[in-house]
């Protein structure tokens, strides 16, 4: 069985790591370079770096901070925020990213997914989807969760897979920062319509939340922020717990 991945997420705004609840109430946490180094040494399997206001502010991602972060990590680094063109792919990859996360830019121009996959390979293209329940449906939100596109999330994920995305990050806005567990219903629905590796984001609060998450065999990774940022659950402790529960992880 393939090892499950534990992935910290650095949401960066104005050069600092920040965190909120339900994509709101953003608070300052730490320096991204120091935090990247900490996670690299703690045994994180990968690291995700999001410039969370790039799309909303209609600007490119801050590459100076990205370069400094990339210099501290020797694990796969996924980077997103303000990715709107194939030139943006090239720019962040040259700064040290291993994979490029597309979100708002891909919603505006779905062919961006295809272009990225054709030039760099599907394994390089991560489709990140910010999802929130609206009535009886799940909608795709963009611009850091500010804008309801009206798109059905499951239909958009299927389209992204068909265009060449190689991996999914499913960000549940409903569970983000709440710490009551991952959005298992949403993740189950995604796993039923997609064959892509799924990274689950939003809701981790205790060790057992990751055990519950990985009971779905199609979920490949758990992504979290505040529980790692504030050392509520150290990564080595989480991995040992999962191993003891019979879940394959890299120690």
From TrEMBL:
GO terms for biological process: L-histidine biosynthetic process. InterPro entries: Aldolase_TIM, His_biosynth, HisF, IGPS_HisA/HisF, RibuloseP-bd_barrel. It comes from Enterococcus asini. The active site is at 11, 130. HAMAP family: HisF. GO terms for molecular function: imidazoleglycerol-phosphate synthase activity; lyase activity. SUPFAM superfamilies: Ribulose-phoshate binding barrel. PANTHER family: IMIDAZOLE GLYCEROL PHOSPHATE SYNTHASE HISHF (PTHR21235:SF2), IMIDAZOLE GLYCEROL PHOSPHATE SYNTHASE SUBUNIT HISF/H IGP SYNTHASE SUBUNIT HISF/H (PTHR21235). It catalyses: 5-[(5-phospho-1-deoxy-D-ribulos-1-ylimino)methylamino]-1-(5-phospho-beta-D-ribosyl)imidazole-4-carboxamide + L-glutamine = D-erythro-1-(imidazol-4-yl)glycerol 3-phosphate + 5-amino-1-(5-phospho-beta-D-ribosyl)imidazole-4-carboxamide + L-glutamate + H(+). Keywords: Amino-acid biosynthesis, Cytoplasm, Histidine biosynthesis, Lyase. This is Imidazole glycerol phosphate synthase subunit HisF. Heterodimer of HisH and HisF. Pathway: Amino-acid biosynthesis; L-histidine biosynthesis; L-histidine from 5-phospho-alpha-D-ribose 1-diphosphate: step 5/9.
């Amino acid at each position: 069985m393939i090892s499950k991945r534990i992935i910290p997420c650095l949401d960066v705004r104005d050069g600092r790591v920040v965190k909120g609840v339900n994509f709101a109430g953003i608070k300052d946490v730490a320096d991204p370079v120091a935090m990247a180094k900490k996670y690299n040494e703690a045994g994180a399997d990968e690291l995700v770096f999001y410039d969370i206001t790039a799309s909303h502010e209609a600007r490119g991602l801050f590459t100076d901070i990205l370069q400094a972060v990339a210099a501290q990590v020797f694990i796969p680094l996924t980077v997103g925020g303000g990715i709107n063109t194939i030139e943006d792919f090239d720019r962040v990859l040259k700064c040290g990213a291993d994979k490029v996360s597309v979100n708002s830019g891909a919603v505006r121009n779905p062919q961006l997914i295809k272009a990225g996959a054709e030039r760099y390979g599907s394994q390089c293209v991560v489709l990140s989807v910010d999802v929130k329940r609206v009535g009886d449906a799940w909608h795709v939100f963009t611009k850091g969760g500010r804008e309801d596109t009206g798109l059905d999330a499951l239909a958009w994920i299927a389209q992204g897979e068909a265009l060449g995305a190689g991996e999914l990050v499913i960000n549940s806005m409903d569970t983000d920062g709440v710490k009551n567990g991952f959005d298992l219903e949403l993740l189950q629905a995604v796993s039923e319509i997609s064959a892509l590796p799924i990274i689950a984001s939003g809701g981790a609060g205790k060790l057992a939340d990751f055990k519950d998450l990985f009971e779905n065999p199609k979920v490949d990774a758990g992504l979290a922020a505040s529980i790692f940022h504030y050392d509520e659950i150290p990564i080595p402790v989480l991995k040992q717990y999962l191993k003891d529960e019979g879940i394959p992880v890299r120690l």
